[in-house]
Amino acid sequence: MNEGPRPWRQTLDSLSVPNFRLFTASNAVAMTGTWMQRIAQDWLVLQLTGSVAAVGVTVTMQFAPMLAFGLFGGVIVDRYSKRMLLMLTQSAAALLSAVLAVLTLTNTVQVWQVWAIAFLVGLVTVIDNPTRQVFVNEIVGPRYLRNAITVNSTVFQLGALIGPAISGVLIVAVGSGWSFGINAAACLLTVLALTRLDASALYRTPTAPRQKGQLVEGLRYVVSKPTILWPIVMLAFLSVFSLNMPVLLAAYADHVYKVGAGGYGLFNTLIAVGAVAGALASTRRANIRLRTVIVSGGVWALIQASSGLMPTEITFGAALIVTGVANQFFFTAGNPLVQMSSNVRVRGRVMSVWVLVLLGGQAIGGPLMGWIVESFGPDTGMLVSGLVPALAAVVIALILAHRNELHLTVRLRRRGRPGEHWGGSTLSP
After folding, report:
1. Has this prediction a pTM greater than 0.90?
2. Residue 93: closest CA among 153, 149, 152, 33
3. Quick one: average pLDDT of 148-161?
4. Concatenated DSSP letters for 138-171?
5. What domains can you pick out in the chain, each with its CATH number?
């Protein structure tokens, strides 16, 4: 029997954990800085080259390392202290952002340098992203994990809401360089926050000993569990086609509506407005079903495709807001389902597969969508970005219905204390 929606008063109950409040506050600043850098970086490349395809190459350079090395990142996450890894990765990200800021502010930056730094940031992400996903487990424990993942997603989207707006203003007023400098400072703030966490209150997870076959073990585990495998398959189509919005929105801002960097930032902000609303609404879910993940992905894709049919800038902006809402209904179902369906012993490797598909798919899709936009126009690109994943959702749903797997549901087991090991979740019809 299914539980009803969670009360609104429990929307942010994971923030009752002091360590998570500190981590979330620093994460909000860090995500704002990350989005500031991403918007400034993409627009800088467009200014230097005049090519939307070059923006797609930038996306590829940043996400290709995850495609090549992402699975090894998961092995590292399972072997070492999550807090230590995050401190190292955030320090490296701060250094790279600072270098890009200096190059840009001194007017010596060249496009190959932007690509090189984007590639190095991608290497950092190979470890940083799955570590960040799994570390939330250690901060809040199993009782608040579902809510904490949703809060994290909301914080990410708040950064996507604030960051592009600030970056757009800075680009118009003083250029891209200051956005990179602010992101460097935000990364250092994250390192400081990590040093201030109460280590005794963490829910420590066992580290995996070094041994052969760990990578293959993780992959076999992913393939063996429908609640992990099928959300990742759905994510693969969405990441290649639907998640390359920077390429599409750069084309709409520069070629269709001719609104410049400020308009580009505004378009990204509109998606984030919808995403914040979607993430907050998702906190009321009591159960997470496999069918919710697949249907949410298909609906998101269809709504995004409809953006390419909008006749005016106002209706286009409205479609972007709804796209953001649908985007979060997918991620706030898929990410928790994958995490809570996995045993803690292999969770780092499982989440590295999730992140590999999420970011590696964008590395493939960036130049692909750039080519489609330049060859057939932004409207066609937007249609393709939605229709292909929507078709994939229909096919996946038919396969799962045939196998009678579409009804799987995940619920949390409330157990565990700080310092104890704890496991995954239960599945029920």
Report:
1. no
2. 33
3. 75
4. HHHTTTTHHHHHHHHHHHHHHHHHHHHHHHHHHH
5. 16-201+215-408 (1.20.1250.20)
